[in-house]
Amino acid sequence: MSRLRKDVNACNEGNALSRTCARQGCSENSGYLDHDIFQLTNLRSGPHDLLSRGVPGRMKLPVSTLKMLVGREGNYTGRGRFTSADSCHVLSRYLPVNGPWWVDQVKSRAYVSQFSADGSLFVAGFQRSHIRIYNVDRGWKVKKDIMAKSLRWTITDTSLSPDQRFLVYASLSPIVHIVNVGSAATESVANITEIHDSLDFAGDHDDDDGFGIFSVKFSTDGRELVAASNDNSIHVYDLEAKRPSLLIPAHKSDVNTVCFADETGHLIFSGSDDHLCKVWDRRCFVTKGKAAGVLMGHLEGITFIDSRGDGRYFISNGKDQTTKLWDIRKMSSNAAYTPRLRDPEWDYRWMDYPTHARALKHPHDQSIATYRGHSVLCTLIRCYFSPSYSTGQKYIYTGSSDGSLFIYDLVSGAQVASHHHHDAPVRDCSWHPFYPMMITSSWDGVIARWEFPGGNEEPSRWEPNHRGPFF
């Protein structure tokens, strides 16, 4: 029982966090909605049936970590170990809420940042042509310091190849550049110390000067890139052939976000300023530009989409100040009219969202859940599912224009945690794929790390607005 006693000491703080969540109404049964994804989430992150049986007629409460450890020692599964769902049930309670500890501070707005799939690297892209790749396992030492080429306004997106050998970065330009991350050089100045190869997405585009890319992503096999652009289109680039392979005139306004739905690469999700999310199936393009389906529910433009990775579910952030959860089986063949419910002069880049519009709902809303509390203003705020390995994707999390980060329970919709630290919008954020560690990147130039329980050093502190929020 020595291992049990050791683990019990480590679990006390996590149990305290769970009790806090329960008081805030974020238990697994609070606000329960009857839909497949909630059943799947509970299967991924719920304890073994022998421990989760409750009293008939009473609400089933989360199983304590202590009870889980006792059950493991008693070999209740017959396997002598936790199942993956058991592990998620324990690990998902240890939210990365302590800190922050500063990773870096740059005199430039941080626009994008993401962990690599294995968590060993972290990429951050800044407005002033600067990208840094940190080696997480070596004390956040800078592995690659990149000065980008031919930017227009800012780095709008970056994507690391699945094998972590290459990084692509996009701007408000038809040219996406690719960098060899695996090279020996730490300093990578575009076409001075290293070649940043150009990938031209424009093809025969008539207006190269007005063409810009908001979002770019590698396919799971690393052979293709998919990009969203301000020409209302989706572009697919074949890296082996070194040319664009598909152009989809997808929306009636800027396409702000796009991603592959799963590892097959057949399905693509897109979101636009026309308020619509669309699903594209590359296997059955009967008519060029014809979507497999349309999903309505947002009242304003879509800023970001993240796929659950199963080709069925995804979430989106909208300028109507909501995150929505979607099931593509509810999609329509055509879009119904989206009513204009606010001042047509409203602009999310510098105006607050009208108070009266916050309670409004789309009359043909096809989403299966809506999450509120954060703000989506100033810039294209991003949102994500929490990691599968450690949480069973039972949470979603998003940046916020008020300098915060919010974590919501996928099933109940409750806000289970939030971080309030930055002086300016948190445009991007990333949860480590295996550890209870979160990174927030903000327009104040700070890359901040949040953990559970955190290191021995004191969290970083600074005086608010000591240098102005928009360097």
Automatic annotation (TrEMBL):
InterPro entries assigned: DCAF, DCAF11/LEC14B, WD40/YVTN_repeat-like_dom_sf, WD40_PAC1, WD40_repeat_dom_sf, WD40_rpt
Keyword Phosphoprotein: yes
Keyword Nuclease attached: no
One of the Pfam families matching this protein, by short name: WD40
Each WD repeat, start to end: 213-247, 248-281, 295-336, 419-460
Entry keyword set: Phosphoprotein, Repeat, WD repeat
Recorded family membership: Belongs to the WD repeat LEC14B family.
Official protein name in the record: LEC14B homolog
Gene that produces this protein: LOC18603402
